[in-house]
Amino acid sequence: MKQDVYQGHDYYNLDDLLSEEHKLIRQAARDWVKRDVSPIIEEAAQKAEFPKSIIKGLSEIGAFGPYIPEEYGGAGLDQISYGIIMQEIERGDSGVRSTASVQSSLVMFPIYAYGTEEQKKKFLPKLASGEMMGSFGLTEPDHGSNPGGMVTNFKDKGDHYLLNGAKLWISNSPFCDVAVVWAKNEEGRIHGLIVERGMDGFSTPETHNKWSLRASATGELIFQDVKVPKENLLTGKSGLGAPLSCLDSARYGIAWGAIGAALDCYDTALRYAKERIQFGKPIASFQLQQKKLAEMITEITKAQLMALRLGQLKNEGKATTAQISMAKRNNVKMAIKIAREARQILGGMGITGDYSIMRHMMNLESVITYEGTHDIHLLITGMDITGIAAFK
Ligand code: TGC
Ligand code: FAD
Predict the structure, then answer these.
(1) Is 256 helix (H, G, I), strand (E, B) or coil?
(2) Taking the complete model, does pTM exceed 0.90, yes or no?
(3) Which of 15, 36, 315, 332 is deepest in the core (most CB within 10 A)?
(4) Rounded to the nearest whole angstrom, what is the distance from the C-alpha of residue 366 to the centroid of ligand 2?
(5) Is 371 one of the annotated active-site residues of the chain?
(6) What is the pLDDT of residues 125-181, one digit of tens each?
(7) Mapping DSSP to helix (H, G, I), strand (E, B) and coil, where does residue 52 land?
(8) How far apart are CA 210 and CA 198, in angstroms?
(9) Pairing mode, if any, of strands 202-203 and 153-156?
C-alpha cells in the first residue's frame, strides 16, 4: 500500500449542509483511517486476517454505537454523524466498516431498543468500548433472503431456554464475545436471544477461502443444546420485524459506507490518470479516461445527495425501510461500477495490492449481497410502489 494521500471530494458543496461537529467527526475518522487502517489493511486482506488492532481505534472515533446515548457508553451522535463515520471507515476497507456496522446496528441497537435495563447496563458500555465484541445471527444455511423460514429454535425449560440450530455467514463470529441470535420459540414466533461465548454447546467456526472481505472475520454460530439464561431474552419486540428493524439501521450505514469505497477508487484513479504518461501525455488528457472520471464523480455526487437526505429523514424519524433499501441498493451498485472503471484506469497496476481498488472491488461483492441482496432491495422498492410483494 502506497502512502495514503486521499482527499475527500465534494462536488456539490454538500459540506455547506453539514455542521462543524459533523466535519470534526469526519476529520477524526479520516485521520484514524490514514494512520491506523491504510498502513496495515492490504496485508491483513492478503493474509485473510482480521486486524484486531483496529478495535480500540474504532471505539475511540465513536464507531461503536455512534447514535447510542452516552449513558450507555455510546457517542450520542445524530444519524448523519453515524453515516459520515461509516463513509470514512469504508473508504479504508468495507470489512472494517462491517465490524463497526455489526457492533453498532446489529448488536448494540437491538440490545438498546429491545433489551431490558439490566441487559443495556451489562452489555452496552463494554460493546461501546470494544472490550466486548458482538455478532448478529439471522442468516441460516437454508434461509438467507428468506429469514422468516429460519429453523433455529428454543424451548422453554423452566429456568432456562434450550437453543438449537445454526447460523451461517456471520460477520465477527469467530471472535465475538456475544451474539444476538434470532430463533423461533415453540409457537414459531421469532425472538432475539443474547448468547455468550463460553456457554456449553455454542461454537463459532470460521469460514475460510473468501475472495471478498478478507480482512473481516466471517463464520458460523452453532448451537447444540445451549442453555440460555432467561434474562438473556430480548423482551421488547418479537416477530421478523425485530431483526428487520436492525437491518434498517445497518443498511443505512452501508448506503454511506459504499460512498467511501467509491471515493477512494475515484481519488486513486484521478490521481493516477494525471500522473501516468502514455503516448507522451497524461492518460487523464484522453477523452475516454475523462469520460470514466466524469461519470464517477457524477454518480458519487448523486449518491452523496441521497445519503445526506436520507440522514436528514432518519434524524427526523421519518426514513422508511423502502427509502433505506433504495439508497443501499443504489449506492453499493454505484460503488462497484466505479471500482471496476477505476481499476481499468490503472491498467495492470490496478490488479495489484499496491493500490486499494481491487480490494474495494472484491469487498463490494459481499456488500451487494449482505444486508439484503441487490435483487431483494429492488423487490422492496417494487413492493413499496405497487403495494404488491413479489418475494413469494
Ligand atoms: P414481511 O412479511 O414483509 O415482514 C414480516 C414482518 O416484518 C415487518 N417488517 C419490518 N419491520 C421493521 N423494519 C423493517 N425493515 C421491516 N420489514 C418488514 C413487516 O411489517 C411484518 O410485520 P408483521 O407484524 O406483519 O408480521 O417478511 P417476508 O418474510 O416477506 O420478507 C421480506 C423481505 C424479503 C424483504 C425480508 O425478509 C428481507 O429483508 N430479506 C433479506 C434478508 C437480509 O437482509 N438479511 C441480512 C442478514 S444480516 C447481514 O447480512 C449482516 S452483514 C453485516 C456486515 O458485515 O455489515
Ligand atoms: P440466497 O437468499 O440464496 O439468494 C441467492 C440469489 O437468489 C440472490 O441473487 C438473491 O437475490 C436471489 N433471490 C432470493 N430470493 C429471491 C426472490 N424472492 N426473488 C428474486 N431473487 C431472489 N448474515 C447475518 O445474519 N449476519 C451477518 O453478520 C452476516 N454477515 C455476512 C458477511 C458476508 C461476507 C456475507 C457474504 C454474508 C453475510 N450475511 C450475514 C448473510 C447475508 O445477509 C446473506 O448472504 C444474504 O442475505 C443472501 O442470502 P444467501 O446468501 O443465502 O442468498
Answers:
(1) helix
(2) yes
(3) 332
(4) 9
(5) yes
(6) 999 999 999 999 999 999 999 999 999 999 999 999 999 999 999 999 999 999 999
(7) coil
(8) 27
(9) unpaired
pLDDT at 89 over 90: yes
* Closest residue by Cα to residue 213 from 247, 181, 170: 170
Nearest ligand to the CA atom of 254? 1
Which amino acid makes up residue 86? M
d(CA 87, CA 364): 14
Q: Whose CA is nearest to atom 26 of ligand 2?
A: 170
Residue at 277: amino acid letter: I
Q: Which atom of ligand 2 is nearest to the CA of 210?
A: 34
Sign of the CA dihedral 175, 177, 180, 183?
A: positive
Taking the CA of residue 182 as reference, the ligand 2 atom at the shortest distance is 25
Q: Say how many Å lie between the CA of residue 240 and the centre of ligand 1.
A: 6
Which residue has a Cα nearest atom 39 of ligand 1?
A: 372
Cα–Cα dist 207/219, whole Å:
5
Domains of the chain: 14-129 (1.10.540.10), 134-234 (2.40.110.10), 241-386 (1.20.140.10)
